Amino acid sequence: MGTLSLEDFVDDQPWGDDLPLLEDIPSENPMPGVRIQRLVTRGDKRGELTVLMSALLEPIAPPPHVYQVSAEAGSIRAWVYHKRQFDRLAYTNGDLRAVLYDLREDSPTYEKLEILDVGAANKILLTIPPYVVHGIQNRGKSTATFINMPTAVYDPKHPDKSRIPFDHPGVPYKFE
Ligand SMILES: Cc1cn([C@H]2C[C@H](O)[C@@H](COP(=O)(O)OP(=O)(O)O[C@H]3O[C@@H](C)C(=O)[C@@H](O)[C@H]3O)O2)c(=O)[nH]c1=O
């Protein structure tokens, strides 16, 4: 028998500082279904840990599909919407700009534009409901990554994504 056994390990003690795991960021006249939550990072000399989503706080629709996007400096991914899925986008690094445009004709915020600068300086989980048009640009000088934890799987045979070009004149926002 070796000199080490499982019993040699010490269980982690409960921890609890006063930092929340996630907190809603209030926005003026929010688009229905859009949610902006501040991500909380805990760190020590080894590095950092940021919870991206957790059922610890409230019931969540478990993400059946999670992916990471790597965005080159200056790159633009726009304009898209989904018919069925909610996007749940975690932005934790880089200097990114997420732009939302509400084209839901029955929405109280119809034709509202919302611009969010996110990433290292503003770590957030952004929930985007179906039919809210969105785009993202990496405005930084280096590659940035972000995570999407949508509420539905990506089906290559029936992608749930509808697009127009990023410079379509119908959207009242111009990526620089
Ligand atoms: C969404 C998705 C795409 N792909 C493939 C398809 C394609 O070859 C490549 C890039 O896919 P897309 O062109 O759909 O990815 P892209 O248009 O870059 O999608 C991105 O758009 C921005 C606006 C977002 O909000 C992101 O969440 C992400 O959906 O990756 C997967 O393999 N799995 C996936 O889950």
Automatic annotation (TrEMBL):
Pfam family, one: dTDP_sugar_isom
Enzyme class: isomerase
Recorded catalytic activity of this chain's protein: dTDP-4-dehydro-6-deoxy-alpha-D-glucose = dTDP-4-dehydro-beta-L-rhamnose
Listed InterPro entries: RmlC-like, RmlC-like_jellyroll, RmlC_Cupin_sf
Ranges annotated as spanning the membrane: none
Assigned EC number: 5.1.3.13
Its job: Catalyzes the epimerization of the C3' and C5'positions of dTDP-6-deoxy-D-xylo-4-hexulose, forming dTDP-6-deoxy-L-lyxo-4-hexulose.
Name recorded for this polypeptide: dTDP-4-dehydrorhamnose 3,5-epimerase
